[in-house]
Amino acid sequence: MNYKKVGVYAILGVLFFLPVAFLLFLYPATHNYTPLDIVNENVLDLKGFSSDTEDNIVLKDHITVLGFLGSKPLDRATAASNLKELVYDKFKGFKKFQVVLVLPEGNQKAGDKLRKDISLYEDLRFLHLIYGTPEAITKTFKSLKYTEPLSEDLSTDFVFIIDKDLNQRGRIDDREDAEIEKDKPIYSLNSYDCIEVATIKNKMSEDLRILFTEYRQKRKDEFNSNIRRATDLKGTNEKN
Q1: CB-based contacts of 150: which residues, under 8 Å, 6+ apart?
Q2: Around Cβ 30, how many Cβ atoms within 10 Å?
Q3: Where do the H-state alpha helices sit in the chain?
Q4: Which of 153, 182, 189 is nearest to 168 (CA)?
Q5: Per-residue model confidence as pLDDT tens digits over 37-90
Q6: Residue 86: other Cβ atoms inside 10 A
Q7: CA angle, corner 171, sides to 80 and 188, nearest 5?
Q8: For residue 46, which of 102, 92, 88, 87 has the smallest C-alpha distance?
Q9: CA 149, CA 152: separation in Å to the nearest integer?
């Protein structure tokens, strides 16, 4: 018997079947994942805002990361840069994905400067700066479920995930496993702090990935899971 030839075939067999076994292992997980929770419904769409392009920017039928830069956008440069590098660059290739950053009217020059500072000559066509009155900005923000209010300049480091149906997505129960085991009180995650790199990389990126998976499965008629809403679970924070 040619043991050398048998050994070669054995190695080739292992190299072939290992990836197949790995895919079979992953297959159930892709169909039984936990969808991203709806933490708030009926987010106001963007009306009465102008954009830095000629496009009419809306939330409906888009998966949107919505942020508020205020009248001093350069003061939020770190948050904007983290958002661009850790979220926008990762998901800009997905259909109907956009990042929308809101500023008060009259701050176009500062907005353009911020865009140039974070772009590094890269494609930012799915990252939109929009401008509105303080009243319009406040009205839009108050339609969200938030933890901290806007600053006096109408800004915040927190951003929000809005789905195609104007639902705000997040986590109804954001406790770690150890906290659940100790039966700690439930707390939710309604927005994501762009200053906290770990939150953006480990939580927000994962939540967006889950949301894109949900819509992909809906297109293929494979989605078969009820999404929890904030009203389904007692003990969550009340809307401000």
Answers
A1: 68, 70, 137, 138, 141, 156
A2: 12
A3: 3-31, 77-83, 89-91, 108-119, 134-142, 177-181, 197-198, 205-219
A4: 189
A5: 999 999 999 999 999 887 889 999 999 999 999 999 999 999 999 999 999 999
A6: 17
A7: 95
A8: 102
A9: 9
Which run of H or of E encompasses 99? strand 97-104
- What are 175's two structure tokens? 């406790």
Query: Pairing between strand 50-51 and 192-193?
Result: unpaired
Q: Which amino acid is at 186?
A: I
Spell out the SS3 assignment of 154-186.
Answer: CECCEEEEECCCCCEEEECCCCCHHHHHCCCCC
With the C-alpha atoms ordered 227, 229, 232, 237, is the resulting torsion angle positive or negative?
Answer: positive
Record the pTM: 0.80
